[in-house]
Amino acid sequence: MGCIVAIGAQWGDEGKAKMIDFFSKDTDIIVRYQGGANAGHTVVVDGVKHVFHLIPSGILHEGKVCVIGNGVVIDPEVLLEEMELLESKGINLKGRLYISDAAHIILPLHKAFDEAMEEFRSNKIGTTRRGIGPAYSDKCLRIGLRMGDMFDKDILHERLTFDITLKNLYLEKVFSRNPFPPEKIFAIVEHFRGKVKDMVINTPHYLHTALDAGKKVLLEGAQGFALDIDHGTYPFVTSSNPTIGGALLGSGLNAFDIEKIYGITKAYITRVGEGPFPTEEKGEIGEMLRTRGGEFGATTGRPRRCGWFDLPLIRQARRINGITDMALTKLDVLSGLQTIKIAAAYRLDGKQIDYFPSAQLHRVEPVYTEMPGWQEDISACTSFASLPKQAQNYVRYIEKESGIKLSIISNGADRKSTFSVP
Ligand code: GDP
Ligand code: IMO
Ligand code: MG
């Protein structure tokens, strides 16, 4: 025990980073466990915005240690840029950032392959083109380059030469694209190795030793439940497991280490990229949510698709992850609506169902419950009791119907706009 997990409970961008930053003050070590620079994690402190793609969102808390776990796929270019940006803001990373020797590396080859595949396929996923799928496929094919492999000259040479040859063949012969000069790829790796040599460690050993010594660990997920490669809306998913299994695999901790699992849940839903989204609002309401919620990708800048809260989805997220507590974010964005809709169930092939049929999601119709909205701006509220009655009813309804204890409400992007629910 001693470890809490924060998992996105929908299609990503739930406000995970804001909540991780909030939890970090009571934690010693924050561990990112999967995904890569497809993630865009935003923390706002005293009006200043920080966006992270790879470094855990707890790094802004002085004295806390951050770890990039073995389940993450690391783009050297993005990581070095992020490290430099933090250092330019006076945030010292020495002794505060560790990287797993088993985390895989994303090279320009993977990004080119991701882009080429997206353009080649007829049924597009709308990936972030950050090389995520190709890097995880290399891991499964056992041809990937891990952080620790950079320090063994023979392995590095053999692995990289093979991957460059293979990817260049695909790029040239299948996709009619320019190949990469091998020396360019080797140079990237050598430069990266020099910059991170003091940070690469056996992170499971480090984390278990810390837990044994009574330290508190926070596991940070990227993406969200419905983007999980196993439990999400395949093929419109990412290539990793943002769900609890991925948290354990990607950190090296075990089920008995876990004390609490927070489902970070937006008060409505967004999705970026392609794929089914039963409660999507394509008209005025969707536009209003996008504008008020600033729903544009933190990584790609793409407009996020917006829609109503979905109970079958959140119930499935609870079951798959074992979510014990909900942090409900962006409640402030819903102010000003006359009526708020919530999908209470789905209709599939003429029958009403209350679960999330991930493989048939494109065929379901939401069955809505409607609730009265509230007009007041709630961004200055600092307690549950100070929320308008309609807002209280809305969140209590979500709590009851999802079966998850509502623990925290977030009503603004800033660190300060967060309060506990009794
Ligand atoms: P993540 O990927 O789950 O960490 O979420 P993102 O950072 O991609 O997107 C969440 C966006 O909503 C960011 O711009 C946050 O600053 C912002 N945000 C987080 N919580 C709140 C909230 O309670 N209210 C409002 N208005 N914005 C929020
Ligand atoms: P955070 O951590 C929202 C989506 C992409 C695409 C699909 C596959 O900020 O919540 P990929 O590049 O992973 O192969 O793309 O997954 N996606 C995200 N959507 N938030 C994210 O991360 C996402 N990371 C990937 O838009 O639909
Ligand atoms: Mg995001």
What's this, in brief?
The protein has 422 residues and is an alpha/beta fold. Helices cover 32% and strands 21% of the residues. It is built from 11 helices and 20 strands.
Task: Please tell me about this protein's structure.
- By secondary structure, the chain is an alpha/beta fold.
- It contains 11 helices and 20 strands.
- It folds into 3 domains: 161 residues, Adenylosuccinate Synthetase, Chain A, domain 1, CATH 3.40.440.10; 92 residues, Adenylosuccinate Synthetase, subunit A, domain 2; 156 residues, Adenylosuccinate Synthetase, Chain A, domain 3.
- 32% of the residues lie in helices and 21% in strands.
- The chain is globular, with a radius of gyration of 21 Å.
- The relative contact order is 0.16.
- The site of 6-O-phosphoryl inosine monophosphate has 24 residues, from helix 4.
